[in-house]
Amino acid sequence: MTDTNILYEDTLPGGAHWSMLVRKGTTIRFIDNEGGANLAALMYNPTEKLERYNAPDTLKCQHTFKLTKGHCLYSDMGHIFCAITEDSLGWHDTIGGNLSDKAMDAKWGTKNYQDNLNDWTLSGDHAFLVELAKYGLNKRDMAANLNLFSKVEPDDEGNLSYVENHSQAGDFIELRFEMDTLLVMHTCPHPMSTVADYPKKSVTYQISKSAPITEDDLSMNLCSENQRGFKNNALYHLCCDHG
What is the reported pTM? Predict the structure, then answer.
């Protein structure tokens, strides 16, 4: 993506939350500004919010434990929300979960806004719930989330550990959206982080128009499951476009 292609750009501060309706044919590049960022995300079909990002299907149908360039992010209806078209890291977490109020308090304590103003701290649960409420959604609508820029790796016995500072300043990932998507996100810490102080790491996002998909598209041809996923999207849009 070149600067001339960017239609909109903004920065989400550390420990903050945001949401937006992302249209089909839109690409978003997320950039870790300082290193050590965690960008948690949930995705929903804006016209049928019961359809949402499904972590197990995303991993098992592409035979992977991690997400990187070429992988697609699936809904629980077999549709592809978006494809990862660029990635400087090679590993993004989709199993580590979300930071709860209880876990935040145990790790770093809780700082409320009344006493700490802009130095207050938010849990990932709180951040997601604030954004979901804007669309009539609540806690029961919180599925397993993505954690972009984060790495959780297993050892030989299957024990999981969080890799601190996996992402460095300037690392990025691009998502090409294949259907209209309600994107809900926050920059609160990963729940497995072990740093001494509550980390506030900002993420910049750049929005552009996606390039046309070609027959040799990496994501579409990564595996037969992805080919079926793109066909499911084509049928979905055919029905939508014709009422």
Answer: 0.94
- DSSP per residue, 57-121: HHHHHTT-SSB-TT-EEEBTTS-EEEEEEEESSS-BBSSS----HHHHHHHH----HHHHGGG--
- Give tens-digit pLDDT for 100-109: 999 999 999 8
Q: What are phi and psi of 82, to 5 degrees?
A: -160, 165
Asked whether residue 208 is assigned to any structural domain, the reply reads: yes
The residue segments making up the domain with residue 136 are: 8-241
- Residue 117: inside a domain, yes or no? yes
Residue 71 CA to residue 59 CA, distance in Å, equals 9
Radius of gyration of the chain from its Cα atoms, rounded to whole angstroms? 18
Q: How many domains does the chain have?
A: 1
Residue 1 included in any domain = no
In a domain, 154, yes or no: yes
Assign residue 66 a region (left: φ > 0; alpha: ψ between -120 and 50; beta: otherwise): beta
Q: Within 13 Å, how many C-alpha atoms sit on residue 194's CB side?
A: 6
Q: Which two tokens mark 156?
A: 């030989």
Asked if 124 and 99 count as a contact pair (C-beta separation under 8 A), the reply is yes
